[in-house]
UniProtKB/TrEMBL annotation:
GO CC annotations, alphabetized: cytosol
Pfam families per UniProt: cNMP_binding, HTH_Crp_2
Highest taxon listed in the record's lineage: Bacteria
Domain HTH crp-type residues, every copy: 153-220
Species in which this protein is naturally found: Wansuia hejianensis
Protein name: Crp/Fnr family transcriptional regulator
Membrane-spanning segments: none
Keyword annotations: DNA-binding, Transcription, Transcription regulation
Amino acid sequence: MLCNCHERDGKNCIEMVPIFSNLTQEEMLEVAHITREKTFKKGEMIYMAGDKGEKLYVIHSGKVKITRISDTGKEQVIRILGPGEFMGELSLFSPENMKDNGEALEDIRMCIIDGDNVKKLMIKYPTIAFKVMEELGKRLEKAENLIENINLYSVEKRLAETLLNMASDDGEIKLKMSKRDLASHIGMSQETLSRKLSAFQEIGIIKLIGHRRIIILNKSALEEIE
């Protein structure tokens, strides 16, 4: 379903995104005027590798899974994005087609801005360009850390680091993705992930609650895993 954004909906969508946070209310309305709204059902592909990009996708509600598929058909989860986050930014600066796949993990609403309009905004409001660069830097750092972890650390160490990074201050983890996707993201099979989580629980380091909740019972023990 594709429609023109209502001014209010488009503005609300823009207000949620950090890259537009320094704009005035009037400037946000200007962005909203060149924004389209589109909805996707759970499991629907937003875009696929090989598609022509040149669009900035802003998530208004729901979650999106960004993946890449290897030559052997193995799926690698790159990141999970939620409300206020954006994707498709790399296609704005490269003539190549999309490299990733974007899949709706839930029913979602998105605001979409054509690439030419985004570039005009960046020229008019340089803070937008700096914010995009800042976000790209953060994503690059996360990608480099993930590559380092996969190459240098044991399965147990990678899982321990992931749990520590995902936990809230009180030691609770609410998974934003399935365990299958989590396993793919940190470079192991789903079976290995399940075995290691069960092993951590058996020795009293964590407690598993249902499919999406994990409580860290012994943070020090996780930090000491090599």
